Amino acid sequence: MKYVLPVVGTAAAVGLFAFSSANQAALAVEKPSYSDTFEQLDLFADVMARVRSDYVVEVEDGELIEDAINGMLQSLDPHSSYVNPDDFRRLQEQTSGRYVGVGMEVTQEDGYVKVVAPIDGSPAKEAGVKSGDYITEIDGKTVLGLSLTEAVNIIRGEAGESVTLTIARIDEEPQDITLVRREVDREVVTYEVKDGVPYIRISQFNEKAAPGLAGAITELKRTVDGRLPGVILDLRTNPGGLLDQSIKISSAFLDSGEVVSTRGRDGSDQQSYDAEPGQLLNGVPVIVLIDEASASASEIVAGAIQDRNRGLVMGMTSFGKGSVQSLIPLRGGRDGALRLTTQRYYTPSGRSIQGTGIDPDLFVSSYPDDGEDHTRVSEADLPNSIENEEAPADDETADEATEDELIIDYPPEGFVVTDDYQLQRAIELIKSGNYNQRLAEMQN
Amino acid sequence: MSLKHGLVLTGAFAATLVAGWSYAVTPKEIDAPSYEKMQILADIITIVEAEYVEPVETQTLIEGALNGALAKLDPHSSYVPPTTYTEQRKAARREYGGLGIEVIMEEGLIKINYALEEGPAYGAGIRSGDFITAVEGESILGLDLDEAVEGIRGLAGDPVTVTVLSPDQEPRDLSVMREQVRGRAIRHRVEDGLGYVLIESFNNTKLTTDLERALELLEEELGSEIPGLIIDLRGNRGGLLTQSVSVSGLFLDGGEVLSVRGRKDVDTERYHADDGEVMPDMPIVVLVSPGSASAAEILAGSLQDRGRAVVVGRRSFGKGSVQSVIPLPGNKGALRMTTQRYYTPSGKSIQGRGIMPDQLVSALDDTGELRRRIREDNLPNALLNVDTSDYEEVYEDVIFPPEEFPITEDFQLRTAVEILKGSRYQELLDAQSDLD
Asked: Quick one: A181 and A196 in the same domain?
């Protein structure tokens, strides 16, 4: 069973969503060959009948068909899946920013559940769960063989109930920790003034992201007496979320003009999304921090700011998820919903970042150049990931060009990783007064 | 949907034996909740066909669906698409070509370990113990075994000239016609005055005959009755069910060897040994490892249950399920599905549990704990065994090689020899019956 989603989890909405009811109306447009479909469904029904009558033990039909649906969608790409009615309800809770759980973003690696990040103020965070921890067992049962969704469903539950996770860390003995599930209020926007520079972190693009950003900007302006010397927008490890939130967030930096465009199959139904007028940060220098785990909606924001030359993007190449999933309710949600990749998106200059990601204007690593590989899983590494239709497979000249230009700013020897070199470099750049010069260089 | 024919597969990986397969009952009607789920599947397919970011074939979707469902049943059930199915059927029929010799490398030359009596090399006068020094006039000195053998292999019907060196003779060139020959599935040799046979696989319809012949050859080489026999099944992934039954039958005088049981009692098939056994007084040690699966476990399990052999090594793999390959109508490929489980004569299921040796012996040195091994019960979605008695290997019960034991030597085999030569054999055999 191969089933890897980049970042799903107890807390995170996956990737990029356009909530869509319009999609069902579009069904009438194309007419697939129904006779073929029925013939194939016959084959499926035939196999199910044989399993029902002759498999070595009795099997629950319904479960089998749900497994079939999941298998079918996983074979398409890593982001398409079936959302059963229970999960559909939970997903709606998640995008609204509240849910019951232990509070962590998780992914899957080598068959284990891996913690991307515990959520501030959650049971997981309080119990000392850290980014990079592996969960090997849930309530004493191995997670091997479970899909990420299955594992996540076991970790989730009712408020007040407890769940025991076996946590493995590199060079440490596995330990059991017991967490009590509760309602986790997921504040996705946090902010503070760091060394005199306003800093805003968006951890996920749920419905609270844009209002949170507006609130943060108001508060920060008040703190620094109205005049912002610059803003650092931290989108590192942000796995994405809602498409409309990424547009609203971009509108804080851009007054009008395109933020992103999406295209369906064969370039059909192209749609362009423009920034809303009334930007909150007119004329304020912006540095966007991204890393390998910045995906989807994060990449839209970073891409728009970069392409429109509105700010500098700093950090490491982003995840590279350039596809949009529509959440299509089945029979009004009674049968759950279908999360299906329906579109690719393109930055204002027309780039698709599918499988390639956003290259920062300024490469800054958070890890020292110690010869070790600190790279994480990217979209292109996922099984069945869709390809970038623009990228020529063997374009050596392009590769050489990037390698020539790729100058990575590494932290000096002995620098403590937790001191956040990327953020320090961003603060230094804003304070140095060289920001405008660097921005102009990028424009050329 | 009346009578269907299918392939019954045994073995963790291998495919083969053809057998009749029929529906005992008509499939039960689909129930309402399942019908609703089917409706969801159909809805989803319609949406995906219309909306997915790239065009998709319905067939691809259904294959994904079938694989998704079947992989959740157990690790051995799957959908076999039409092209693969045809290829597998061809592969099952294919025979190897060559000269019919088993060779090893010795002092830079190819040494004939065994020449198949029906093979062309044997017909040309090549015998066990001979050396091949050159192929087509080219010396093979300096080549490794694979490279050296490469020149010998070729199309059946094409001759090859080999330079053969027999003891006390001048080298001679022999032209041998390559033929389609089958390889033996066993190797035999005298080991420390005892008989040793290695069964690599049960995927050979002449395995039982080969084994009987190997026992005769061992007697000839020993110049006496075989004082004790080691049957090495380590790493043997299984193969033909019929061969595991007939090999077991060689050493058993009638009685049950194995039962194969499906979901319903009426599906139970029992396999029996023929009356009479070869070498009834010869002690036997069977070597097993976590890589011994399926047909190998049937042999080890039946000889152990019937008190005919002592099993030595580490607990075996635990593949005790039977897959049927059911062709789907309209050239739609086939369904490979688990339909039955194996039970040893005492009624224990092999599935997910394997055969526990009478004497646990580790091949590798003692690190203070048992090394973990991948077995059936570690596989995702494996069918587990409800009977968990006598299933965990206990560290304290394991014999480890002493520190000074050379790493290049086979400690499990060494222990098997010691067991056969000392009083330990009878003790272990007695302990078996104490348990029952």
From this structure: no
